[in-house]
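Hi U.,

Before I forget, here's the chain from the pilot set. I'm dumping it here mostly so it's searchable later in email.
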Amino acid sequence: MAIMLFKRREEFFENLILDKEHLKDNFNAGFVGFTFFINGEWKVITVDTRIPYNDDKEVLSKSSVVKAPFWLTLFEKAYAKAFGTYSVLNCTLIKDFLVDFTGGWSKKIPIKIDEKEGIDDKKKNYYFEELLRRVNQGYLVGCMKYEEKDKRDFDDPDNDNDEEEKIVTNCLYTIIDIQEYEGIKLVFLANHWEKGKYTDSFGPDDEQWEANKRMTDYLQYTPSTVDGTTWMALEDFLRNFNTIYYCRIFPEEWAQYNIAGKWAGQSSGGAPQKDEVWFL
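Structure:
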C-alpha cells in the first residue's frame, strides 16, 4: 500500500531496483533484484519471477486490490522474502514501510476533529501550514481514511469499497500540492486505486472550474476524471481523512550513523520464531 506514494515520485522507486541497466535481461533470465533499508542498512533481495495465484488464476498479492503492474507483485515478493513471510505485508505499519523503502524518516499524524466543535481557524491553519511545509520540502506525503476492520474482512470481496464511494477507506492517497487562492485553502490529491470518485466542492466535475477561470489558471489545473486527481477544500479534507503520513528522504550527500542494538535474553519481546520463545 505505501508504495502507492511513489507513483508520483518514480525516481525514488527506481532507486530500489537492482541493476536497472540490465533489468530486462535479468527478467528474461527469470530473476529480479530490489534493495530495502532494513534494520539500519541497505540489503539486496533477489527473487525469481514466479508469482502465486489461486484456482481462478488471480494473483495472490497485496497489490491485487488494483490492476497493478507485474513488477509491483515482484516487489512485494521481494519484500516478503526479506522478512521470511507474506504476512509482513499485512502487519507492518505504513510508516515503517516508508522507512524500509527510502532509508528516510517517517511519521504518522492523526487528524483530530471534534464533530461537535467543528473545524476552527486555529486547526485549519495548523494542518495547512504543516502540509505546506512538508510538501515544499520535498517529503513524500500521503493521507488515509482509516476504519477499523476485522482481519477477515480484507479477504472478503463483499466487504470491498464501493466504486461509487467518494473516499476509498483504508487506502493511501498521495498529497501532491497545497495552495491558497483568495483565502480558500486547498489540497491537491491523487487516488491510485481505480475506485472512489470525489464529487463535492472542487472535485473534477465541479462546475465552478468552468465558472472561475482565474482560479483554474492560478492552480494550473485541467479538471480530469480519469487520472484520479482532485482538489479539495481543506475543511473537506479534514472531514474526509483522519490520518496523514510524512516521509523525509535524506539527500545522498548526507552521512548517516547507526548504532546497532539487540534485545536479547529470556526477558526479550517479540513473536515466537521457529523453536525460540520470548517472555515479557
